[in-house]
Amino acid sequence: MSGPGTGKNQAESGSTSILSRIVPDVVRRRYTLKFALVVAIMGVTIGVLGATATGVVSQQVEQNVEEEYRNLASQQANTLETWIERNSISVTLASKNDALSNTEPGARFDIRSELATTDGNVYGVNAIYLLNVSDSGTRVVASPQLIADRQLNQTRRAWVGEAPFDAIDVMDVHVTTVHRIGDMPVVAFVSPVTGHPDRYLVMEYSITDLTMSLDTDTEDRVTMVVNDEGTIQATNDGDRIPGRDQYGNGTAMRPVRLASELDGTDQKAGVIPNMAPDETILNEEYTVGYAPAKVSNVNLNWTVLVHEPRSNVFGFMLAISRWGKIATVGGILLVGLFGTAIGYNTTRDINRLRHWAHRMREGDLETTKRTTRIDAIGELYDGFEDMRRSLRQQIREVERARKEAEVSRAEAMRMNEYLQQKAEEYSRTMRRCADGDLTQRLEPDGESDSMDRIATSFNEMLAELERATGQLKRFAIEVENTGELLQTSSDSVRVASGHVADSVQRIADDADEQKEQLQEISREIDDLAAAYETLAEHGDDDVQEHGERLDEIAARISEIATLSEETLAESGIVAGAAEEQAAELTEISDRARDLTQYARPLRDALDEFETETDTDLYADD
C-alpha cells in the first residue's frame, strides 16, 4: 500500500523526468549554464517578488549559517571526542598489562620499566603512574616521573585522588577536569588495572595538542571547551587560562545548559544566533554554536562552544537583504550581473574543490586550497582541509606504528635467533654429557634470564652427578678388590681344610688299623695267659709270675685299644667339622666370585663417564 511519501517521491521523479526532457543536455552538463539560466529566471521574477524574495533569501542564509555553526560545533566536538577516545583507548590497553598487578617483592622496578616503555610508545603522554587505593590513602606504586611509595596527597597530583575510584567499571575510563602542573594544563585519564581491584593506571596528557587542533581558521572565531561547572578546559584564546578561568555566569551559561539537554536526542549540536555581549566572552553581540562531547565508557560533561561576532556571521545575510532591495529597484540587469559574478565564483570554487579532491584521491596530501568564503562552499573548503590534515596525520601515525612494529619484529627475530643458537649450543653440550663427558658445563651469558637459569640448574645437576659417579667408582673398585681378596682367602682356607680333613682321615685309618692289631695281640696274649694259668695251676711259680705280667700287659693293651677308639671317634668329629667348614668356605668363595663379577662391569660402565675426579680415583689403585 503506497503512502504519502511514496506519492511525493513519484511526483518528484516525474518532475525531474519532465525537466530532463525540457532542458537540453548541454545545459545539464554545465553548472555555469544552469546557473545562468536560474539567474535569468530570477531576473525576470525579481521585480514581482521584491521584498518577499529578499526576506526568504535572508532567512535561508540565516538557516545556512546556523547549520554551518552547528556543523562547526559538531566537528570541533568530534575533534575533542577523537582526542579523548584515543587517550582512553591508550590507558585502557595499558591497564590490561599483567605486570601492573604484580605484588611480588621487587615488582615495583618491573612495573616502572613497563610504565616507562608505555610512556615512550604512547604519543602525547606527560606523565604516567600506577596508584594503589586503600582505606589508608592513595599511594603511588611506581612511575617514571613520580617518587614511588609516596602518598598522592603529598604530590602536586593530589587532585587525581578526587576521582570516584569505586565507581569506575573495569571497562570505563574516568577523565578528570583540567589542572595545572606548573604552567602546563593537563588532563588525567584513570583506568582500573586488570587483576588487581585496588590499582589504577593514570596517564596525564597536556591539552596543548587539543588546543592546537581547535578551529583557528577565522581570527575572530573563539572556540572553548567548558565543563558543566563553567570552568574552561581548553581554548584557542590565548588570553584565557584553562583549568582556572570561568567561562561566564548567568545568561552566558545558556549554551552549556542547552548542550546538556541534547543528551538522548538525535541532534548532535545546536546554535544560538544572537547572544548579548559578555565581557568574559565577546564585547559585542555574538553567535555561538554548541555541541556536547560524548565518548562511550567515559563519563564526560564537556561542551564545545564556537563563538564569533554576529556581524561577521550574518554580515552576508544583511548584505543580501540590503542589496536585495537595491536589486529590486535596480532591475533585472543588476541582478543578472550579480548572479553571473556569483555563478562564476561558485563555479570556480567548485572546480577548484573538484581538482583538489582529485589530487587527494591520487595521494597528494600536501596541496592545500584557501578561500575567504564563509558559506557552505567555505565550509566545504574547511571540511576538505580538515580531512586532508586528518588523513595526513593518520598516515603519519600509521607509518610511525608500522616502523615501531618493524622495530619490535626485528627485536623479536633477534631474540628468536639468539634462543635458537643458545638452544643448539646447550643441546650439543647436553649430548656430550649424555655420551659420558660429565666435565662439560653450560655457559650463562646474561642475555636471557631463562636460559641463564637453565644453565645454572644444569651445571648444578652435573656437579651432583659427577660427585655421585666418583663415589660409585670408588665403591665398585673397593668391592672388586675386596671380592678378589675374599675369594683368594677362601680358596686358601678351603685347600687347608681339605688337607686337614685328609690328615684326620689318615690318622683315623691308622688308628683303626692299630686297633685291629692291638685286638689281635690282646687275643693272643689272652690265649697265652690262659695257657700260663693252666701251667700255674700245676704249681709252677715262674709261670704264674709271667702270667701276671701278661695280664698286666693285656690290661695296658686294652687301655691303648680304648684310647685308639676314642681317638678314632674324635678324628671323625674333626673330619666332619672340616668338611662343613670347607662347604661354607666354598659358598663364601662362590659369593665373592659373584660379587667380583658384578663389581667389574659396574666399574667398566662407570669408566665410560669422564669426570674431574678420575685421576685422583685411580691414583689409589
TrEMBL record:
What InterPro entries does the record point to? HAMP_dom (IPR003660)
**What are the HAMP domain coordinates in residue numbering?**
344-396, 417-470
Q: Which UniProt keywords apply?
A: Coiled coil, Membrane, Transducer, Transmembrane, Transmembrane helix
Cellular component per GO? Answer: membrane
What biological-process terms (Gene Ontology) are attached? signal transduction
Q: Please give the name of this protein.
A: Methyl-accepting chemotaxis protein
**CDD domains from the UniProt entry:** HAMP (cd06225)
Q: What protein family does this chain belong to? A: Belongs to the methyl-accepting chemotaxis (MCP) protein family.
Q: Does the keyword Membrane apply?
A: yes
| Ranges annotated as spanning the membrane | 35-57, 323-344
Which SMART domains does this entry report, sorted A to Z? Answer: HAMP
- Gene3D superfamilies in alphabetical order: 6.10.250.1910, Methyl-accepting chemotaxis protein
Alphabetized PROSITE patterns for the sequence: HAMP (PS50885)
List the source organism: Halapricum desulfuricans
The gene is tar10
Would the keyword Transmembrane be found if you checked this record's keyword annotation? yes
**Annotated Pfam families:** HAMP
Q: Show the coiled coil region(s).
A: 381-415, 501-538
